[in-house]
Amino acid sequence: MDADGSHPAERLPALIAAVRSGGADLSIGSRWVSGGSVVDWPRARRFISRGGNLYVQLLLGVRVKDATAGFRAFRADTLRAIELENVASHGYCFQIDLTRRVNERGLRITEVPIEFRERELGQSKMSSSIVLEAMGRVSMWGLQRLWFSLTRRKR
Questions:
Q1: pLDDT tens per residue across span 76-101
Q2: Whole-model pTM?
Q3: Structural domain harbouring 25
Q4: b/e for 89-108, b at 16 or more Cβ within 10 A?
Q5: What are the backbone dihedrals phi and psi of residue 26, each rounded to the nearest 5 degrees, phi first?
Q6: CA 19 from centre of chain
Q7: Are 79 and 73 in contact (CB under 8 A)?
Q8: How does residue 155 score in pLDDT terms, banded at 50, 70 and 90?
Q9: pLDDT band for position 154 (50/70/90)?
C-alpha cells in the first residue's frame, strides 16, 4: 500500500480476508470495480489510468479492472510462484507485471472495491518515462502472448 494517504487503511482487513479465507491468491484494492471510486483526481489522470488498464486487459487477456493498483495482498505461495527475482519492471509497470505473472500461472485474483483519494503527502511519480515503460512492456508481453498462441495452434 502507498504511504501517502491515498489507500484507505480500513480496507486492509478486506484485502487480507480475500487471500486468507476467500481463496484468492492475490487481492487488489480496486478503484475501477463496482463500489470503487477515485476522489480528487484530474480528468487526464483518470483517463490515463482507465486507458492503461483497458490496454492491459486487451493485450494480456487479464480480467482485472485495476492492474496498476498498488494496494494489494498476496499469499506467500503466490509470491514464490511468480519468481519475483526475475521482475525487472518499475513504476506502474511493476504492478502490471505482478498481475500478469499471477494470471499466467492460473492463480485466482480478486478485486476489493476501495475509495482512492489523491495523495495527502508527497508528490506523484507519474512521468512520461513511467507511461512509456508500461506501454512498451505491455506491448512486448502482448506480442509474446499472441506468438505463443499462434505457434501452439500450429501443433
A1: 999 999 999 999 888 789 999 999 99
A2: 0.90
A3: 9-154
A4: bebbbbbbbbbbbbbeeebb
A5: -140, 130
A6: 16
A7: no
A8: low
A9: low
Number of domains in the chain: 1
Query: Does residue 4 lie in a domain region?
Result: no
Phi and psi angles of residue 82, each rounded to the nearest 5 degrees, phi first: -95, 5
pLDDT at 153 over 80: no
What pLDDT does residue 143 have? 96
Spatial CB neighbours of 127, under 8 Å, sequence gap ≥ 6: none
Nine cell digits for residue 13: 482487513
Residue 3 falls within a domain, yes or no? no
- The answer to the question of residue 100 being in a domain is yes
